Amino acid sequence: MATEFLMGNEAIALGAIAAGVGVVTGYPGTPSSEILQTVAKRSPGGIHVEWSVNEKVALEVAAGAAFAGARAMVTMKQVGLNVASDPLMSLAYLGVKGGMVVVVADDPGPISSQTEQDTRTFGLFSKLPVFDPASPEEAYEMIGDAFELSERYGTPVLFRPTTRVCHGNAPVTLREGRTAVVPEGFVKDPRWVIFPRLSYESHLRIEQTLPVIGEAFSGYRFNTLRGEGTLGIATQGISTAYVGEALAALGAGVPAHRLLRVATPHPFPKALALEFLAGLDRVLVVEELDPVIERELQRLAGERHLPVTVLGKASGAVASAGENSVESVTRALAGFFGLPDPVLAAVTPPGEAPALPLRPPVLCAGCPHRFSYLAVKHVMRKRKAVFGGDIGCYTLANADPLNMVDTCLCMGAGITMAQGLHVVQPDVVHFAFIGDSTFFHTGIPGVINAVYNQTPIVVVVLDNSTTAMTGLQPHPGTGATMMGSVAEKVDIATVLRAIGVKHVEQCDPRRLEEAEAAVTRAVDAAAAGVSAVIFEAPCIHLEPAGPMYRVDPDKCQCNLCVTRLGCPAILSVAGKAVIDESLCYGCDLCAQVCPFDAISPVTAGEAGK
Asked: Is the pLDDT of residue 606 over 80?
């Protein structure tokens, strides 16, 4: 057996390949994106891999494959599960034939998400089994177990790695060979058609099956109980590693205790948990994000009248939000055991540590979205407007000096929220910015709604030819698929015209005057209904950089390039603009806005001087 140093997402992908997965679908979303990409890269052949247009579509494609007996996997992040929840709730009732694992990567922090929602809680809500890996090595093994359980009980299974598991790295021993799965094919049966009577019977079946799975989980190899004493620690996922490191830091002073690790939070391993609770006085629960284990232990203690105090998020013993860390867990355990806090003791200098410098996220130097926003801002500088944003790297334009994102809720909501805002404030021009991938994801229904209800909004599609923020994945407008084939591009302008948008204009935002003229025409056209501007310019990661630019200090007089653009390559030094050539992409936006012609490209002979 070979051993590879793998990212957690790579381990999940290779574990699924070893388990005989036949269909993998998903929508890119950090921290999950590398799972599907790794399957596509490392596929031995015979695996269908696709980026679907959104998570709902991805889950439904995978469900069809599972109905036909194939092992199927879907990948997404936690907010993507909201999009997929409609088919998933019904699929929990219908069940599957081939194993089906829905990998939902949670993002405690959150580091790159709108919410900190906990997929374990969604497992309780949807009545689906949940697997919660603690490391890349464990994720590799556990994904195969998830497929097996899914087939054994005919149910979809949720698999919930968190950011630190997804993006952590570890040596993983890979199994030889691959589980052979030959799909039987779709067999017609009334069970595959959801009706109220069938749903009632399926609900009864689910309620009968969950305790059986919970009993099996009590003996599951990754649910562990060790140690003795009257104090207990219960934990899960990556927090298991934090607890281990924290106990080592606290050293020999740690009193005897039991340690329960829960790898399958739903259905809860009740028998194992009762064994853990028996004879304990106090328990500290360390988990991310919701108090799932804490509530279950409290419920069991109350149900069995056990004289044990369960501490955790509700009691304030651990933080109620955010991700855990070795330091935070060490402090929580020190307080639980009544020991000195080694984290505070390690801070020897008196007073507070100096504040870290602020490093706000910004659009990349050379990003074409900066041109697009600047064009709209300049046109609307004397008119009242609301700029609706959406999910993507273009959301970074919310910060000064651009300050061009007034709303941001979820994928596709910029277009629909603009319509609601117009109803209340019809005298305001309402813009809806959306990216090309997000347009295909959930933007189209919102535009149809605006056309149907005759709501005059200006839709601005920022088409940079990729799904940039999650790692440059293809989408229907790029003409490429994850299977390596060349596909017919779905043209955004054609789609908009087909659904009834009368005024649709395409332009390159890097030609700033032309972009401003296009925005002006779109605003005028919006008086008669929905209008649209499609700004087409590739992400800087898809094209080589142009010549670097430099500021002539003798001509520099206004610092307008600093105060208007927010480009990370431009700063002000002693009242003069200066361009950091190591960051400059050569886009020439600064040169276009400079009123004194103080900015010009660096010639080959001048570079580096």
From this structure: no
| Structural element, H or E, at residue 579 | strand 576-579
Q: How many CB atoms lie within 10 A of CB 378?
A: 17
C-alpha distance across the termini of the chain, in Å: 54
Residue 594: give its domain's CATH number.
Answer: 3.30.70.20
Confirm if 583 and 568 have CB atoms less than 8 A apart. Answer: yes
3-state DSSP percent of the chain in helix, strand and coil, to 5: 40, 15, 45
Judging by beta carbons within 10 Å of its beta carbon (0-12, 13-18, 19+), is residue 337 exposed, middle or buried? Answer: middle
Domain extent, residue 60, equals 3-217
Contacts of 333 (CB under 8 A, 6+ apart): 233, 243, 246, 247, 250, 254, 284, 286, 339
Provide the residue type at 225 as one letter: L
CATH number at residue 339: 3.40.50.920
Instruction: Please give the mean pLDDT across all residues of the chain.
Output: 93
In this structure, are residues 449 and 478 in contact, taking their beta carbons and an 8 Å threshold?
A: no
**Ramachandran angles phi, psi of 52, nearest 5°:** -85, 170
The C-alpha atoms of residue 571 and residue 580 are separated, in whole angstroms, by: 8
Inform me whether the pLDDT recorded for 348 exceeds 50: no
Q: 315 phi and psi, to 5 degrees?
A: -85, -10
CA atoms of 417 and 410, how far apart (whole Å): 10
Asked whether residue 61 falls in the same domain as residue 143, the answer is yes
Structure tokens at 87: 């088919």
Confidence (pTM): 0.90
Residue 58 falls within a domain, yes or no? yes
Cα distance between residue 129 and residue 381, in whole Å: 54
Helices (H), 195-325: 196-218, 239-250, 270-277, 292-303
List of residues 6+ apart from 65 with CB closer than 8 A: 22, 23, 48, 72, 98, 183
**CB under 8 Å to 373, separation ≥6 — which residues?**
394, 397, 402, 404, 433
Q: Residues 470, 582: one domain?
A: no
Write the CB contacts of 295 (distance below 8 Å, at least 6 apart in sequence): none
**Confidence at residue 282, expressed as pLDDT on a 0 to 100 scale:** 97
Taking every pair of Cα atoms in the chain, the longest distance, rounded to a whole number of angstroms, is: 82
Please report which confidence band the pLDDT of residue 123 belongs to, taking 50, 70 and 90 as the band edges: very high
Residue 269: which residues within 8 A CB-CB, separation 6 or more? 214, 217, 218, 220, 223, 262
Question: Domain with 425 in it: what CATH number?
Answer: 3.40.50.970
The DSSP H or E segment spanning 337 is helix 326-337
Cβ count within 10 A of residue 60: 17
| Strands (E) located in 95-236 | 100-105, 130-131, 157-159, 169-173, 224-227, 231-235
Same domain, 86 and 125: yes
Whether residue 94 has a cis bond before it, omega within 30° of 0: no
Structural domains counted in the chain = 4
Stretch among 334-348, 354-368, 446-460, 569-583 having the lowest mean pLDDT: 334-348
Q: Does position 346 have pLDDT exceeding 80, yes or no?
A: no
